[in-house]
Specification:
This protein is an alpha/beta fold and about 375 residues long. It has 12 helices and 11 strands. It has an 11-stranded parallel beta sheet with strand order 1-2-3-4-5-6-7-8-9-10-11, with no helix packed on it.
Length: about 375
């Protein structure tokens, strides 16, 4: 991934063109509004593919005509190859622009230089509240610059940093952000490389966080003690409602820690733990939390090697908690048996609103009598 920011001569030319396009857009964003007449000529920033073909004068003059330009609240420039230069050109206009609420720059090769330029602009902008910077090769240095900016700008409520190669060093800055930014509501850290040490840093920060309601750390490397430390942070958190930790490696140790957290946590409503190497032993430990929890509505534990025994144990824990708020219990891709089905029927009586999703469709085989074979007698056989 380190070579993605070392652009060839051809890529550099494309980057310059993207920078020019960003400059054209910047000129439009800075243009003054015209009269209050019909607004049919509004620029829809969602479809700016032809931006490079427009010149600054055209955009500027268009905004000065008799049309009424109502600035769009969303600036979507994902997959445009802006690169550091393009983002630098764009960032200069974000400082004072009061209209953009959502900024989508996913997959633009920002790298560290672009992240630093954008961070400087976002630290001074008070209107942007939703930022998507996924797939931009930010790395630890880029994360550091952006987290510092977000800590200053309390207006940002949703941040997406998926697929940026974030590791342990970046986790330190993310943990500091969780402690400093009380206005942050949603954070997406999926598809990164956060592992054990990251879990040990993020867990305590999660415990102290006072505002985050949705967190996605799926497709990382949270395992063993790091996963357990992360889960313990959930125990003390009193704001988080949606947590996705799927496709990590929590294992039985992490599942046990999550179970303990569910005993005390009375806020969490949705938990995705699919594909986390949880065996039947870990499922039983997780079930201890379900026996006491009264707020969790959705629990997804699909694609775990807990077998039918683990599924049965979890469902038995739900049966033992008539105050359970569960609405969906997902065991997809885990084969269960008739004993589980019988228990599910009993649980449905206690919790009629509960939907239980199980493995692949099972075929019921019917016993069929084989045809009776009569002895073969030759036609010329004597009677």
């Amino acid at each position: 991934m380190s070579s993605t920011c070392e652009r060839s001569e051809e890529n550099q030319e494309q980057e310059v063109e993207a920078a020019a396009a960003a400059g054209h857009l910047a000129g439009f964003l800075e243009a003054e509004d015209g009269s209050d007449a019909d607004s049919d000529s509004d620029l829809e920033t969602e479809g700016t593919h032809g931006l490079g073909k427009l010149d600054r004068d055209t955009l500027y003059l268009g905004s000065r005509r008799t049309y009424s330009v109502v600035p769009a609240p969303e600036l979507n420039l994902r997959h445009r190859g802006l690169g550091p230069q393009g983002v630098q050109a764009l960032a200069s206009t974000l400082t004072s622009n009061p209209y953009i609420k959502r900024l989508d720059l996913r997959d633009n090769g920002l790298c560290v230089a672009g992240a630093e330029a954008l961070a400087d602009a976002l630290s001074k902008n008070s209107s942007v509240c939703d930022v998507d910077l996924s797939e931009n090769q930010l790395g630890a240095a880029g994360a550091q610059a952006l987290c510092a900016a977000f800590a200053v700008n309390q207006a940002v409520e949703k941040i997406q940093l998926s697929g940026n190669g974030l590791e342990e060093q970046a986790a330190q800055y993310l943990a500091e952000l969780l402690l400093a930014h009380t206005g942050l509501k949603s954070l997406d850290l999926s598809y990164n490389q956060l592992s054990d040490q990251a879990g040990e840093m993020l867990g305590p920060a999660l415990a102290e966080n006072t505002g985050l309601t949705e967190l996605n750390v799926s497709w990382n490397h949270l395992r063993g003690p790091g996963a357990a430390a992360f889960a313990r942070g959930l125990e003390a958190n009193i704001f988080l409602k949606v947590l996705d930790i799927s496709y990590n490696g929590f294992g039985d140790l992490g599942a046990s820690a999550v179970g303990e957290a569910l005993k005390a946590n009375n806020v969490l409503e949705q938990l995705n733990m699919s594909n986390n190497r949880i065996s039947a032993v870990g499922a039983l430990s997780l079930g201890l939390g379900l026996q006491a929890n009264q707020t969790l509505r959705i629990l997804i534990v699909s694609r775990n090697p807990m077998r039918c025994e683990g599924c049965f144990g979890l469902l038995k824990s739900v049966q033992d908690n008539p105050a359970s708020a569960l609405e969906l219990l997902d065991f997809s891709d885990i084969q269960v048996n008739r004993e589980f089905d019988d228990l599910a029927s009993l649980v449905k009586v206690i919790l009629p609103g509960l939907s239980i999703k199980t493995g692949a469709h099972r075929v019921e085989y019917k016993k069929e009598l084989l045809p009776v074979l009569r002895p073969f007698l030759p036609a010329s056989a004597p009677k």
